[in-house]
Amino acid sequence: MALSKEEVLKIAKLSMLEFEEKDIERFQHDLNDILKFVEKLSEVNTEGVEPLAQINDIYNVFRDDKIVKSISNEKALENAPESLEGSFVVPKIVGEN
């Protein structure tokens, strides 16, 4: 299944990415190559293969939670350019397109 230019543009919009017109064809080609590779993977016989998240026996090692002295909320916000109700106010960087 090859992606059309319109589908690439839709994926870009959903990803909040903007492509220049000259790059759309290259991304279309790259995405289609990825889809071809995934299609090949679907042909692999995985009967009897257990699902897994990673191939080696590495697990997260967590430290014990300890209560430690920290600065107060007021002190943390002391140098903030703007705060509201005990939180930092920052500019909106993700919007609806």
Automatic annotation (TrEMBL):
Instruction: Please provide, alphabetically and separated by semicolons, the GO molecular function terms listed in this UniProt record.
Output: ATP binding; glutaminyl-tRNA synthase (glutamine-hydrolyzing) activity
Report the Pfam families cross-referenced here. Answer: GatC
Look up and give the organism this protein is from.
Hypnocyclicus thermotrophus
Indicate what this protein is called per its UniProt record.
Aspartyl/glutamyl-tRNA(Asn/Gln) amidotransferase subunit C
Tell me what reaction this enzyme catalyses: L-glutamyl-tRNA(Gln) + L-glutamine + ATP + H2O = L-glutaminyl-tRNA(Gln) + L-glutamate + ADP + phosphate + H(+); L-aspartyl-tRNA(Asn) + L-glutamine + ATP + H2O = L-asparaginyl-tRNA(Asn) + L-glutamate + ADP + phosphate + 2 H(+)
What is the documented function of this protein? Answer: Allows the formation of correctly charged Asn-tRNA(Asn) or Gln-tRNA(Gln) through the transamidation of misacylated Asp-tRNA(Asn) or Glu-tRNA(Gln) in organisms which lack either or both of asparaginyl-tRNA or glutaminyl-tRNA synthetases. The reaction takes place in the presence of glutamine and ATP through an activated phospho-Asp-tRNA(Asn) or phospho-Glu-tRNA(Gln).
Gene name for this UniProt entry = gatC
InterPro entries linked to this entry: Asp/Glu-ADT_sf_sub_c, GatC
Does the keyword Ribonucleoprotein belong to this entry?
no
Record's keyword terms, sorted: ATP-binding, Ligase, Nucleotide-binding, Protein biosynthesis
What the record says about family reads: Belongs to the GatC family.
